[in-house]
Amino acid sequence: MSITHKKRLTWGDWINYILLFGISAISVFPFLYIFSVSFTDPAVYVPLKFYLFPEKWSLAAYRYILSTNSFVNAIKSTAFVTAVGTVLNLIVTFMMAYGLTKKDVAGRGVILSGVVFTLVFNAGIVPNYILVKNLGLLNSYWALIWPALTNAWSLIVVKSFLESLPAELEESARMDGCSDIGVFLRIVIPLSMPAIAAFTLFFAVSHWNTYFNALIYISDTRKWTLQVLVKTLIIDSQSNGVGSQTVASDGGNAPLETIRMASIVLAVAPILVIYPFLQKHFAKGVMLGSIKG
């Protein structure tokens, strides 16, 4: 017969719980406000009033935003950059990291030194802009993809993860006649799914939130990413970024504030929807890369 003892909460535990609850509330309330204002009916919206829940629900702001060419183009641009960029990031990062795990690869030490060097030193904005310009990538989606195919931190973490995989599996596969590409596709990739899921999230979030590079490399407003458009909508007081200051709905006008909040929700929602499905693999993938045994 087993006896379980419940731990009594001390004053320190209660203080920790209260502090955590307060910090969580402070973090959640801005999201609730943005969500509430975006769904608030324009007829009952009052500026500078805190909305925890919409007094009257309305989709006017969302209908208007999704009907404008600028916002639809921004979503398409961001979706293309995110999808293509993430796939290429995964391919380049895992293939290069796998190659760097092999000690017999010619020039491995030089390449690793170059990778580590970029962790400390960066060329800067002007040289990067000149490089993108000379490559003819200005005003092209590829200006947001090619220069960011991989990075030193991702390579080092993925390399550490791949080195933790059992070497016996690769040796067995080669004895069965697998080539290097076969070993990589049939052995390494299936065993690397937790890390792939984790870095898929890393790369996808990075591309989805692309702002600065899109701001300096793309001047064509039809190719703006979602973050650049949302910035224009929220910060630029002269224009709402989608072509109108108000939007008609049920005999009224949707204030600019409801359009701003709706644009923020649309920009954040995809990542919030995808993250719960990858959270399990995300945590596992990051931890596996830190243990080698």
From TrEMBL:
Topology in membrane: Multi-pass membrane protein
Annotated ranges, domain ABC transmembrane type-1: 75-277
GO biological process terms on file: transmembrane transport
Secretion signal, residue range per the UniProt entry: none
SUPFAM superfamilies: MetI-like
Pfam families membership: BPD_transp_1
Subcellular location: Cell membrane
A Gene Ontology term for the protein's cellular component: plasma membrane
InterPro entries: MetI-like, MetI-like_sf
Annotated TM spans: 14-35, 79-98, 110-131, 143-162, 183-205, 259-278
UniProt keywords, alphabetically: Cell membrane, Membrane, Transmembrane, Transmembrane helix, Transport
Similarity remark: Belongs to the binding-protein-dependent transport system permease family.
The protein's name: Carbohydrate ABC transporter permease
Organism, as annotated: Paenibacillus cremeus
